[in-house]
Specification:
By secondary structure, this protein is mostly beta strands. Helices cover 5% and strands 44% of the residues. The protein has one domain (3-84, 93-171): Lipocalin, CATH 2.40.128. It has an eight-stranded antiparallel beta barrel with strand order 1-3-4-5-6-7-8-9. The two termini are 21 Å apart.
Length: 174
């Protein structure tokens, strides 16, 4: 067993019991897609360079990622210093360090890929079109990964999301 089915088996989620979904384009989504449904809180975001160096450029970021059963996705991420909750004011240098987009999603568990089809975004080319992310479950966490180029070298980005404790009981893992 490999890919998402293996991840689901180790997380205690039975992939055979998940309900099948259809995305907005009428394409058949994978039954295991329901395992991502819910609201997720951003735990960490790290970039790893080819030399093994890892950085967390947004410190301890704030963020929410929400998937619904109809195939919709909303993502909000911000630098720790960009968060103005509690009356804090952010400095101009971190104002652009905020990402927000919405659209639809499709899960391909056989390849361990989730694709976000962006419909609206504040981030131009950085969050537009189709965003393909590797995904896996590690305990209570959803791990999304992708590779970009920075300063001419490939950089692996890893985002760790934890299911929100305020999510409805029906969305929580058994």
């Amino acid at each position: 067993m490999s890919g998402l089915p293996a991840c689901l088996a180790t997380s205690g989620i039975d992939p055979r019991g998940a309900a099948a979904m259809t995305d907005r384009d009428g394409d058949r989504a994978w039954p295991e897609a329901s395992s991502v449904v819910g609201t997720w809180e951003l735990v960490s975001m790290a970039w790893t360079y080819p030399d093994g160096r890892t950085i967390e450029p947004w410190g301890t970021p704030a963020g929410r990622l929400a998937y619904d059963a109809a195939g919709n996705v909303v993502a909000l991420l911000m630098h720790e210093a960009r968060n103005e909750a509690g009356g804090r004011t952010s400095t101009p240098d971190v104002q652009p360090q905020y990402s927000a987009y919405f659209g639809t999603y499709r899960v391909d568990p056989g390849h361990g890929v989730i694709t976000h089809r962006v419909v609206g975004s504040l981030n131009g080319a950085n969050a537009s079109g189709e965003l393909r992310r590797s995904f896996a479950f590690e305990g209570d966490d959803l791990i999304l990964g992708f590779t970009t180029e920075r300063d001419g070298v490939p950089v692996v980005r890893r985002l760790v999301w934890r299911r929100s404790p305020s999510a409805p009981a029906a969305w929580k893992d058994p």
